[in-house]
């Protein structure tokens, strides 16, 4: 036995509780106290993953962690997302069991020991806190939020190969080796890490679902916004086709298709009702398509790198230049294909368009929306 193994220090934790937080100052102390109570008799540690909160969240964590080595912090700057926060917290620990729980007291920490028992003693690989099994509930959610949640849950069915009542749950516990099996295939996008993990495993894990009541927030506020929905759709897409094409490219192509439709509508309107010449209607339609595409890509495709203020304007300029080069290349390539290579008009047209799409995507992601 090595000298280290016999040294006099506490063994590492059995259970690591990963707690993603963003502006949860008022919830830190109550949360640690609740964990301490719920996990009595278990060797646990808590890893807070904070995405650069602007309130006193890190100070509150430090105030406890300086006296209690079970409480640790990962501070990320310039990063966002519940899913990647969980992954990094889990990877910073050696514990054989890893739990995810929200840092706002909305999840019921008293379920954690039952989850641990399911994994350690009952042979399960993944224990999920579920709002949708007997005894669980969504608390005080309004109709819209409840409806969205159930819609999202049905959508999750497309990528899950095993029935799960609450795949949107952010409250679960997993064996480390099962998490590691999934880890290289994770999409790590947005909020829904549990769904990501299950859909990333080649064989479905043995799952135990445990009911819990979703509590009402008493401090701080929810971080759910329109971006969460977009991230969720991206996750589903990535799970479906991500191994073939990057989802961001698909979004970019979808926006391009919208741009073509807008172009044709403006062109027709200008010609028919605006009394414009073809060249002025075509110029207007092109301008609308470029500005529209830029704005949509800025809002959806490159949401995390969104340009604002002056950078919005310079971004629009570089994007227009890049698209113009793409258009010229498109025309040249398809003309050569039709003229010299005697391709059919539609094959040449499609090839030219695909080529400029790839060009626009590659170059604008490297220049306009560079990291
Ligand atoms: N590190 C980090 N980064 N933490 C974040 C981020 C982020 O970008 N966004 C939110 N959080 C933290 C919050 O501080 C909170 O501790 C937890 O993640 C959940 O965020 P909420 O904004 O409170 O989420 P919710 O209550 O609307 O959503 C809940 O319901 C979902 C089920 O529909 C969460 O419990 C989810 O985990 C759950 O999947
Ligand atoms: Mn919450």
Walk me through the structure.
It contains 13 helices and 7 strands. The protein is α/β, with parallel strands linked by helices and 371 residues long. Strand 2, helix 3 and strand 3 form a beta-alpha-beta unit. The mean pLDDT is 92. Bound molecules: guanosine-5'-diphosphate-alpha-D-mannose and manganese (II) ion (MN). The site of guanosine-5'-diphosphate-alpha-D-mannose has 23 residues, from strand 1, strand 2 and helix 4. The site of manganese (II) ion (MN) has 5 residues, from loops.
Query: Which molecules other than protein and nucleic acid are bound?
Result: guanosine-5'-diphosphate-alpha-D-mannose, manganese (II) ion
- Overall pLDDT, averaged? 92
Estimate what percentage of residues fall within beta strands: 5-15%
Report the uncertain regions.
none
* Category by helix and strand content: alpha/beta
How many DSSP-defined strands? 7
Gap between N and C termini: 48 Å
Shape from CA axes?
elongated
């Amino acid at each position: 036995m090595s000298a280290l193994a016999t040294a006099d220090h506490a063994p590492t934790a059995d259970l690591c509780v990963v707690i993603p937080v963003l502006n949860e100052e008022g919830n830190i102390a109550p949360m640690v106290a609740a964990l301490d109570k719920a996990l009595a008799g278990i060797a646990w540690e808590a890893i807070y993953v904070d995405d650069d909160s602007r309130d006193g969240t890190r100070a509150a964590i430090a105030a406890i962690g300086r006296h209690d080595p079970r409480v640790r912090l990962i501070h990320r700057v310039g990063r966002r997302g519940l899913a990647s926060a969980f992954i990094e917290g889990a990877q910073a620990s050696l514990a054989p069991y890893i739990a995810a729980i929200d840092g706002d007291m909305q999840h019921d920490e008293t379920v954690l020991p039952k989850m641990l028992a399911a994994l350690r003693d009952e042979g399960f690989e993944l224990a999920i806190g579920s709002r949708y099994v007997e005894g669980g509930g969504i608390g005080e959610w309004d109709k819209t939020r409840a409806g969205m949640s159930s819609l999202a849950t049905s959508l999750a069915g497309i990528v899950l190969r095993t029935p799960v009542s609450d795949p949107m749950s952010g409250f679960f516990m997993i064996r480390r080796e099962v998490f590691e099996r999934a880890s290289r295939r994770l999409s790590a996008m947005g909020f829904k890490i549990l769904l990501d993990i299950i859909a990333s495993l080649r064989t479905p894990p043995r799952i135990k679902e445990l009911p819990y009541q979703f509590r009402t927030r008493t401090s701080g506020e929810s971080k759910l916004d329109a971006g969460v929905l977009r991230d969720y759709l991206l996750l589903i897409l990535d799970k479906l086709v991500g191994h073939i094409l990057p989802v961001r490219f698909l979004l970019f192509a979808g926006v391009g298709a919208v741009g073509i439709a807008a172009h044709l509508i403006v062109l027709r309107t200008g010609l028919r009702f605006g009394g414009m010449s073809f060249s002025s209607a075509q110029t207007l339609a092109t301008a609308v398509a470029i500005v529209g595409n830029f704005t949509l890509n800025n809002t959806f495709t490159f949401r995390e790198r969104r340009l604002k203020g002056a950078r919005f304007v310079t971004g629009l300029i570089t994007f227009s230049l890049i698209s113009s080069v793409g258009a010229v290349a498109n025309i040249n390539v398809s003309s050569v294909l039709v003229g010299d290579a005697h391709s059919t008009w539609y094959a040449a047209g499609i090839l030219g368009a695909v080529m400029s799409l790839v060009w626009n995507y590659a170059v604008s992601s490297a220049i306009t929306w560079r990291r």
